[in-house]
UniProtKB/TrEMBL annotation:
This is Lipid desaturase domain-containing protein. It comes from Rotaria socialis. The keyword Transmembrane applies. The chain crosses the membrane at residues 93-114, 121-142, 211-228. Residues 130-307 form the Lipid desaturase domain. Keywords: Membrane, Transmembrane, Transmembrane helix. GO terms for molecular function: oxidoreductase activity. It comes from the Eukaryota. Residues 1-26 have a biased composition (Low complexity). Belongs to the fatty acid desaturase CarF family.
Length: 321
């Protein structure tokens, strides 16, 4: 889906009376404006109608609640949340401890070999590391959202499950603690941080100075990959964020809340980059994701987002009192 097609989203509450919908949407728009202290346009109202109102803690107040479309009471979200295991949590804790130890160790050597005369290379290397992290976040997020199923052995429950849960209950991430939020991302960086620590420990000074800029690139890449889901969590947090985080979001140093809402418009097929979000607009302009999807579909026959769509349908009837 291109952003220009937001008005034709298949989940646009077609059965709802249009006048009450526009009134409710404008009321909610006012609420969001107050909470976010950001300017909202008519496009934002379309986003608000087609994604969970995360600034509304109940998450379903716009609708008649005959079927829960989003949030912690969604039947699929409850089932997916119940599949988080003790073993998985243990793996996440170990990953976070190892990652932090190696980060501190490597940072000591990055500082030790820092030479201000090389700033013209160090700064671009660092920025390239951040951009690479943003691109990597987009590709991994796109793969997990678009292909595969929760029923697949090992990766289904351990890796794809949180992505399915996140679409039908975007607020669940705000209730996850630091370990559950960041465990997987920290784990990804451990092997390279270990290798970097090995180089800083055993290589001689001359060789280390030759690879210094590359290691700065990899170090920034590792930091931003590690922090990606924390930035993502903050982009879903509408209450109680520290002012310095809001400042970083407002000036788009990290993923802004309003920006990330575009991904959460059904059917979740664009704006996949969730580290800084810097690459979302350029990738949207060149239609990068539809192009990738058409290639995969042509060669495998798989339909994009079929599992994601199936989980979204796992609603259960609720009683209206
Ligand atoms: Zn997603
Ligand atoms: Zn999200």
């Amino acid at each position: 889906m291109c952003l220009s097609s937001l008005t034709t989203s298949p989940c646009s509450a077609s059965s709802t009376d249009s006048s009450s919908l526009s009134g409710a949407a404008s009321k909610r728009n006012d609420m969001m404006e107050n909470n976010l202290q950001e300017d909202f346009s008519s496009e934002d109202m379309l986003v608000a109608k087609n994604s969970m109102p995360e600034d509304d803690p109940n998450g379903n107040t716009l609708h008649d609640a005959r079927e829960i479309r989003w949030g912690p009471q969604h039947a699929g979200a409850k089932l997916l949340a119940s599949q988080y295991t003790k073993e998985k949590r243990f793996q996440e804790i170990i990953s976070i401890i190892l990652c932090i130890i190696f980060m501190i160790y490597n940072f000591f050597f990055i500082c030790r070999y820092f030479d201000v005369r090389n700033c013209y290379l160090i700064i671009p290397s660092a920025l390239l590391g951040i951009l690479t992290a943003d691109l990597a976040s987009g590709i991994v997020h796109w793969c997990a959202d678009t292909w595969g199923s929760v029923d697949m052995p090992f990766i289904g429950r351990n890796f794809l499950r949180p992505f399915r849960e996140h679409h039908i209950d975007p607020t669940s991430i705000t209730r996850h603690d630091f370990v559950e939020t960041n465990g997987d991302n920290f784990a990804v960086t451990v092997p390279y941080l270990l290798y970097m620590a090995y180089k800083f420990t055993y290589w001689n000074d001359t060789d280390l100075r030759k690879i210094y800029n590359f290691e700065v690139y990899m170090f920034l890449l590792a930091i931003f990959v590690s922090m990606t889901n924390q930035f993502h969590k903050w982009s879903h947090t509408y209450f109680g964020l520290p002012s310095y985080i809001v400042f970083l979001q407002r000036y788009h140093v990290i993923l802004p809340r309003k920006h990330h809402r575009l991904h959460h418009v059904v059917p979740h097929d664009t704006y996949f980059c969730i580290t800084t979000g810097w690459l979302n607009w350029p990738l949207e302009m060149i239609k990068f994701w539809p192009w990738l999807e058409s290639i995969v579909e042509t060669y495998t026959g798989a339909k994009p987002r079929s599992d994601d769509f199936a989980w979204a349908q796992k609603t259960e009837k609720v009683h209206c009192y």
